[in-house]
């Protein structure tokens, strides 16, 4: 990591998230953990960016290997260990319910794939404690949406928004229709499980019928092509369906990009989160990608901006091997892509970043206060 002017807290967060540190990075990580840093901000950033599980793994691997090491803020150990353990238990609890839904979909001949969540934990991270997730994203064909919804409701779920992870706020007919017409998913399907589980209070299904996220513009041909390339994967001795590695890369890039450029998500501190970038970075580090197919698919279905945006951030944040060959094959407007933030599903500009440092931009908690170019509700 060669950002000399970057504050140490940011450097530490990145090193705690990065995979397979080199010798210099290992030494730098140890040195930073011995410094008197702003530990309240570090724990806050680990929590906001949802990378505490990965940080615990790196702490064990690169810091606990020498008994003479002692963190300047020893309570970091307890926080990271608890975060990892809770995430692992909660993921097990999540899959207990998700697996029932997957099995029911298969038995009723409804084609599906798991999009993120548990499938990433196993397929990419190979450890249920490394990645936290609140809900379970399942993609079905648009023609199967109502049938899949009815099936899940028959398993004891209710349709509504989760409130404080304890209540279900039921939508009216207009809200159900508006969500379906203006988004990529239906109103969530939720089951209260607080009396049955140790950590999980609600099991939430986000039922997707499109991978064109956060827009009313959908392309069914994309769904057909992704389903043709889906793979079967085993989790806890049960076979589930998920996207193959190239399709998964495109979906993760779409997820990271769309929320990063949406002012609604900026306001909710959901825009530039490190865990989303780590998903892409760990996938690229683990799997051999057929870049020719990714480029062809991206050009065909207008995902070039998403791939460019994601690779630029991975390259900068994690100081990876250059993706210039791929980036040079993408036709994009670089300054517009990296700097513009828009209102939901529109070309109406909310604000433009003036800080060119992508790392500082990612960790800037105050970007919610930026003055808007077009103030919209």
Main attributes of the structure:
five-stranded mixed beta sheet, Beta Polymerase, domain 2, 3 domains, 17 helices, alpha+beta
Structure in a nutshell:
The chain has 377 residues and is α+β, with helices and mostly antiparallel strands. The protein has helices spanning 8-17, 23-33, 39-48, 52-62, 75-107, 117-125, 145-153, 173-182, 220-228, 245-260, 263-267, 274-286, 291-301, 304-317, 324-327, 334-339, 358-363; strands spanning 112-114, 136-140, 158-159, 161-163, 167-169, 189-192, 202-208, 231-235, 238-242, 340-342, 349-352.
Please explain how this structure is put together.
The protein is built from 17 helices and 11 strands. It is 50% helix and 12% strand. It is of the alpha+beta class and 377 residues long. It has helices at residues 8-17, 23-33, 39-48, 52-62, 75-107, 117-125, 145-153, 173-182, 220-228, 245-260, 263-267, 274-286, 291-301, 304-317, 324-327, 334-339, 358-363; strands at residues 112-114, 136-140, 158-159, 161-163, 167-169, 189-192, 202-208, 231-235, 238-242, 340-342, 349-352. The mean pLDDT is 96. Helix 10 packs antiparallel against helix 12 (274-286) and helix 10 (245-260) packs across helix 14. The strands form 4 sheets. A 5-stranded mixed β-sheet has the order 1-2-7-6-3. Strands 4-5 form a two-stranded antiparallel ribbon. The chain has 3 domains: 8-73, no CATH class; 85-243, Beta Polymerase, domain 2, CATH 3.30.460; 244-377, no CATH class.
């Amino acid at each position: 990591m060669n950002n000399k002017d970057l504050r140490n807290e940011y450097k530490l967060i990145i090193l705690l998230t990065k995979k397979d540190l080199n010798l210099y990075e290992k030494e730098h990580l140890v040195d930073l953990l011995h410094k008197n840093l702003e530990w309240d901000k570090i724990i806050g950033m680990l929590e906001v960016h949802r990378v505490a599980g990965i940080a615990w793994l790196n702490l064990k691997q690169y810091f606990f290997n020498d008994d003479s090491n002692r963190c300047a803020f020893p309570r970091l150990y307890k926080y990271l260990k608890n975060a990892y353990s809770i995430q692992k238990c909660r993921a097990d609890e999540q899959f207990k319910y998700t697996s029932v839904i997957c099995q029911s979909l298969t038995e009723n001949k409804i084609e599906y794939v798991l999009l993120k969540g548990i499938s990433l934990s196993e397929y990419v991270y190979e450890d249920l404690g490394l990645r936290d997730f609140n809900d379970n994203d399942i993609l079905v064909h648009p023609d199967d949406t109502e049938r899949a919804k009815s099936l899940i409701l028959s398993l004891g779920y209710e349709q509504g928004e989760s409130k404080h992870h304890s209540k279900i706020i039921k939508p009216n007919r207009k809200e159900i229709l508006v969500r379906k017409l203006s988004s990529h998913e239906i109103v969530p399907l939720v089951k209260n499980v607080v009396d049955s589980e140790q950590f999980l209070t609600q099991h939430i299904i986000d039922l997707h019928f499109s991978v064109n996220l956060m827009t009313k513009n959908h392309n069914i041909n994309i769904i057909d092509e992704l389903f043709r390339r889906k793979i079967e994967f085993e989790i806890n001795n049960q076979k589930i369906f998920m996207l193959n590695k190239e399709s998964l890369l495109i979906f993760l890039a779409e997820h990271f990009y769309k929320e990063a450029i949406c002012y609604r998500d900026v306001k909710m501190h959901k825009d530039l989160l490190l865990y989303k970038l780590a998903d892409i970075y760990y996938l690229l580090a683990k799997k051999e990608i057929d870049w020719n197919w990714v480029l062809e698919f991206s050009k065909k279905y207008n995902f070039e901006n998403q791939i460019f945006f994601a690779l630029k951030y991975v390259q900068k944040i994690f100081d990876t091997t250059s993706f210039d060959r791929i980036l040079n094959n993408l036709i994009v407007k670089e300054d517009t892509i990296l700097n513009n933030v828009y209102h939901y599903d529109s070309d109406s500009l909310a604000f433009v970043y003036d800080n060119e440092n992508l790392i500082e931009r990612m960790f800037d908690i105050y970007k919610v206060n930026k003055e808007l170019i077009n103030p919209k509700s």
